[in-house]
Amino acid sequence: MHGVPVPDPYRWLEDPDDPATKDWLEAQEGLFAAELGALPGREGFRSRIAELLKSGTVGAPVWRGDRHFFMRRTPEQEHAVLYTVDPDGTERALLDPMALDPTGLTTLDTWQPDKEGRLLAYQISVGGDEESSLYVMDVAFGSRIEGPIDRCRYSPVAWLPGGEAFYYVRRLPSTEVPEGEEQYHRRVYLHRVGTSTEEDVLVFGHGMEKTNYYGVTVSRDGRWLQISASRGTAPRNDLWVADLEASSPEAPELVVVQEGVDAQSSLHFGRDGRLYVFTDRDAPRSRVCVTDPATPQFEHWRDLIPQDPEAVLTDFAILDDLDRPVMLVGWTRHAISEISVHDLVTGERIGEVPTPGLGAIGGISERPEGGHEAWFGYTDNTTPPTIQRYDARTGETTLWAASPGAVEVPAVDTEQVTYRSADGTEVHMLVISKPGVTGPRPTILYGYGGFGISMTPGYSASILTWVEAGGTYAIAQLRGGGEEGEEWHRAGMLANKQNVFDDLHAAAEHLISTGVTTSERLAISGGSNGGLLVGAALTQRPDLYAAVVCSAPLLDMVRYERFGLGATWNVEYGSAEKPDEFAWLHAYSPYHHVREGVSYPATLFTVFQSDTRVHPLHAWKTCAALQHAQTADRPILLRNETEVGHGARAVSKTVELAADQLTFLAHHTGLTS
């Protein structure tokens, strides 16, 4: 390619239907079972992870008048269930994935009640494919009244008042797009409840970029329509708004808010008549601006909550049933969450919201019609998810709902440390250990480093099980993530991707130099983009790591755009079709940097055959290459799981996967507890 020879000896493994591939996978299954079956401790890990997951989960409420909706998983449930609480206080289960499908293979992907809380749009998928068929339910009766509407993967739903119609996003039929592009070509449609989708009105997207994702919202009063477009996962969007009082919902007259601008922005139409703009334009750590809805363009914006020099602005909510209306603003400071209170008119900071500890806060929500209360999720390394309620009249935060299961959580010590990467950049890392442990010990180093996603503290049964057994777990906040804002993200994408790998190597060296571990006791773990991270790490520095778990990874970076959703990620990684970007990709592509005669770490690839985001071929090909090249007496194994995908899965499948991973890492780092 571009004059560079690119060996690809295992291309035949790209075809899962080839008999040779099936034979190879069957042989790998036998090898994995034999190797893992000989290792001690798996049942202990499995039982403890399962016990800690009996904490269950709980989600923040979504209010519609006097009714609210929320998710909860009790200790015995495989999946979280969607509940509603009626105005009289009666709680009812609306959607239980296990009732829909007792096999546990069906997942509830997303849901959105209408503005009155009478109808509910929801999306489900089966077997991990994340394809999302859309349905509509009558909330009062719990009965399905529409659906399925297929091809709705990653579709937002924006209801018009009255519940008679909604905007949504749907892919074109496969018969109308070029072969190989079936996952792309989305459009925004208006659907009227009770009519055939054949009558849906195409509102937006025709003739635009094939990999575009679209966002669509309608203001609470139904007047303002907002549509955004992002090319794939690009950290920028184009944005339009239409006044539905001045034009029809079927043919909205869209006005440009921003187009061709290297920034992300979104709009919130306030109950006070002002337009609030959440943006990282000229503010890589983000800010909130205000303007008049009639003049939504950049030149009319004025700062309400300016960019902070250190913290990243993540969220806001407006509480206006007060003598002095306020805005609650969510921040992360080196990935630790906090909430400040500001005067809604001037933006002046006038206080802060008490939070339970140094952890992660979910979205801040309020009642759509206004009020003095807000709700937010909270978790940290030892606290299962909780929902907190803040009362702006009293300034107090109280527990509103806890995860329903009572579990005995082990004590851990969490330390936030800083270290310097190869180019001198300061990077933060959370190091979680059992209280009182000293000396080098088996350690798992985890990272992600991509797509602006932040590694924040959170309850993890797997981490707690590892630490309780005497190991240490470290989470590095690498470049490419969002922990320090958009500049931090861009310092680890495209031509800068090597910075992410350097940050991980430097984290490992810091853990070794400070006596936490040794290279013989150090493992690395990552999934998806984090699988690419650890794949690059094991091929660049095989001497530094004793063991690797590489889950659902991208590893053939020369051909990644041809499979799954790969073409939507070339805005993050680059495209091999362009000579300069091919050079970036080929320089680190893990599959292409496996070398014969090298002593590689013990490596476990875990992949999911129904994964429609990242095709398992990446792991298959690289596993084969490593097995051929390996000179050390350390195994290269593949755990190939069927009927699950990249995202949500039943709890029991989560337990089995985590137990296998910890058993493998414990054996190869010397964790014997």
TrEMBL record:
PROSITE patterns in alphabetical order: PRO_ENDOPEP_SER
Name the UniProt record assigns to this protein: prolyl oligopeptidase
Record carries keyword RNA-binding: no
Originating species: Streptosporangium fragile
Family of this protein: Belongs to the peptidase S9A family.
EC class: hydrolase
Domain Peptidase S9 prolyl oligopeptidase catalytic: 459-670
Catalytic activity: Hydrolysis of Pro-|-Xaa >> Ala-|-Xaa in oligopeptides
Pfam families: Peptidase_S9, Peptidase_S9_N
Keywords: Hydrolase, Protease, Serine protease
EC number from the UniProt entry: 3.4.21.26
Domain Peptidase S9A N-terminal: 1-401
Hydrolase recorded as keyword: yes
